[in-house]
Amino acid sequence: MFDVKKIREDFPILNEKVNGKALVYFDNGATNQKPNQVVNSIVDYYKTTNSNIHRGVHSLSQKATEAFENARIKIQNHFNIGSSKEVILTKGTTESINLVASCFTSIVSKGDEILVSALEHHSNIVPWQLLCERTGAELKVIPMNQNGELEVDKLDILINENTKLVAVNHISNALGIINPIELIIEKAHKVGAAVLIDGAQSSPHLKIDIQKLDCDFYTVSAHKMCGPTGVGVLFGKQDWLNKMVPYHGGGEMIKEVSFEKTTYADLPHKFEAGTPNIAGVIAFGEAIDYLNNIGLENIEKYENSLLVYAQKQLLDIEDVKIYGESDKKAAVISFNIEGVHPYDIGHILDQQGVAVRTGHHCTQPIMSYFDIPGTVRASFSFYNTIEEIDVFVSALKKAIRMLK
Ligand SMILES: *Cc1c(COP(=O)(O)O)cnc(C)c1O
Question: 18 and 83, same structural domain?
């Protein structure tokens, strides 16, 4: 049974006061909160297990290594990844995408095309621009329509024999739109192009089956899934990972080093140079357990009920314009009030304890498309409630009264 009251007991931060008001945290798209189980696992690790991994013969190091590798297996199972060799631990989605873009330097050349979508986060645009600058390849963009949906009828022209890689997000962080990635993957594979899916926004809300999706790369940020910051995942198919030269050189990623020649460690360690965020990875394993105890299907259903309720309340308010009015949406509402700057709304909401994101959400091309400076974004998590939406809506009405 999904019991939000009980769930909230695991998140002490939800009882914090902000500006003298009860916190209503609706900035989950930027990062979500961490339950006690995750926080405690970080503390426990440093109190009982701290030592470096994969190095020492001593027992503590073995214990740390085991806990770290156990978290990798949890990640593998959670996302239904075929082999633990395909689970590269990174700092987050940004690093995961940069890793692939950097390693594709020797795979891509002049005349090739990299395809992204109009809905991408800057971290799924800029690394590809850098790759294009290094190689002479060309960046192409799948356009979107006024509802924030990708124009899939253009795919057959955009995905062609020059396309080397297609990089799209599963869910847009700015608008919450769920993209038709199955279709994109199928069309890309027909021309032999690789597909990278930015899963930073989908992994907190949906059950992801990577083998079923059959994408070539998939990226995750732990901190958006109740895990710590500075931890992420890059799934990559072994065929690609074997073809790619290492991203970073250093400890952990080598087999043998001499000044004449260095050989690389086996997957996944080949892409994991240096000492990782050991406690963070272990805590991410806890976060995955936590989410699975509730059940991603339950989370998705509950969050959707919050979305439907909030959307209805907002549309009842005059002058509210919601961006991305698709029926394929995660629990994100991006909106503006006619004639009011989003920052001013965000500021007055904050004074009333309501945390939302305002601005361009690292997606300036989307804001340019709608010709706006930014939006107010309310993004929900499974620990939010209908009552909190009511507080948010009346705070918003107050802000509108003050500003208009
Ligand atoms: C948050 C986010 C990113 C960046 O993730 P980091 O954890 O900051 O590296 C990339 N893409 C999308 C869609 C995001 O929501």
Answer: no
pTM strictly above 0.90? yes
Q: How far apart are CA 323 and CA 335, in angstroms?
A: 6
Q: At what angle do helices 278-294 and 36-44 cross, to 10 degrees?
A: 150
Q: What is the CATH number of the domain that holds 371?
A: 3.90.1150.10
Q: Is 362 a catalytic residue?
A: yes
Q: Quick one: 104 exposed, middle or buried, by C-beta within 10 A (0-12, 13-18, 19+)?
A: buried
Protein residue with its CA nearest to atom 2 in ligand 1: 200
Instruction: Tell me, yes or no, whether 216 and 363 share the same domain.
Output: no
Q: Which of 175, 238, 178, 172 is nearest to 200 (CA)?
A: 172
Q: Are 395 and 318 in contact (CB under 8 A)?
A: no
Six-digit token pair at 301? 């259903």
Res. 181: pLDDT tops 80: yes
- Cα–Cα distance for residue pair 194/167, rounded to 1 Å: 9
Q: Is 117 in the pocket of ligand 1 (CB under 6 A)?
A: no
For residue range 122-137, what is the model confidence (pLDDT) as tens digits? 999 999 999 999 999 9
Count CA atoms closer than 13 A to 58's CA, side-chain side.
Answer: 6
Residue 200 Cβ contacting ligand 1 at under 6 Å:
yes
pLDDT tens for 148-173 read 999 999 999 999 999 999 999 999 99
Cα(267) to ligand 1 centroid in Å equals: 25
